[in-house]
Amino acid sequence: MQKCSVSVARRPESVGLDVVLQGWVRTRRDSKAGFSFLELNDGTCLGNIQIIAQATLPNYDGEIKHLGPGCSVTVEGRVQASPGKEQSTEVLATRVVVHGKADPASYPLQKKHHSFEFLRTIAHLRPRTNTFGAIARVRNCVCNSIHQFFQEEGFLYIHTPIITTSDCEGAGQMFRVTTLDPANPPWLNEEIDYTKDFFGRPAFLTVSGQLDAEALACALGKVYTFGPTFRAENSNTSRHLAEFWMVEPEMAFFELADNMDLAERFLKRIFRDVLHRCAEDMQFFNTRIDPTIVATLENIVGSQFVRLSYTEAVEILKSSGQKFEFPVGWGHDLQAEHERYLTEQRFKAPVILFDYPRTIKPFYMRLNDDGRTVRAMDVLVPKVGEIIGGSQREERYDVLLERMKEQGLDPEDYWWYLDLRKYGTVPHSGFGLGLERAVQFITGMGNIRDVIPFPRTPGSADF
Asked: Alpha-carbon distance 140 to 145, whole Å?
């Protein structure tokens, strides 16, 4: 007898195996013929496996007949072909060990259907539902694909600091890291004296590993970082989290066109892997959440991404005849409605926009010869708009220095970043993909709080 997962036991080739299954009961039905049907799930797949527990088992009357949703068990038995239409196999139990009971009067997952809002209040239990089990498996597949893609492309996986003293995005919405006593901080000339703090100066949780990754790329060639990032943005929308995961590749000797090529290959690889490896879960999302999601992903995998300058995009939008909530004008950021028009109506394909106005992009993006635009790029997909943002980085010392001053940054805070432009500078590029945004797009889920196990949002840091 061998330990086996539910996903393996459900395969037709497992018929005849003596197995040990361990998991949680979803439902129990009692037959008048003297046995019970248990639906068992262990998280390895969407579907359950049916367990036949006969009345001859020694703990049938005392335990098995009282099992309900949430109870945990070990089942020993033989896999046999199932006459039922909904499954190809079932297990005839020879032994059922009950590990943990779940009081039906208080167990909150008794009903088959709960709102996502309610399930957020029990984030510790919602992975036991079909939807959140499927999200976890898709998220795992995406993470695995990310690592496989970059490893196969010759990248080194590196780790950048979570605690930083610089704001990569220049937004200033960062969580402070301090050991100072908030009730009695040290003062110097009516201001808090951060020289007395742990790091001797203000420190924060990172919003991006990009700047540090650039330093490593300028020595190692191609690198990527994949870890948690933080934004102290007081936003309660369906697209924002205070803590989320980012994958950020940085590549030496890559110009903007190389960056766009990589981003296109990257997205296609992730989507292809999810469609192939999580077919059952993706069909669930296609049936229950968004009936177009599988077709959308298949279309992206099979399409050629359109490449369009920001200036061309503005002209297309202005002449489209569409009525937009936000006006379109050169020098302004494009909104999701503009991006969706381009991908869903005009081109019916993913679009990579490039060469944005310098005034709306961060200091580190390479200035074009026109002096008005920078070598930025955004990858847009149907339904959500931007899914990847990146750029060719500014490698010229004097231009970078000017851009920092232009945006009110103190060059002394970025002395080491400037050093990279003084010693062996090279053209280099990179981009960032928010993991949760990607999983939200892949699954069709309406709220980003439902694609991360324990969401951190304004006023909420439970579990």
From this structure: 9
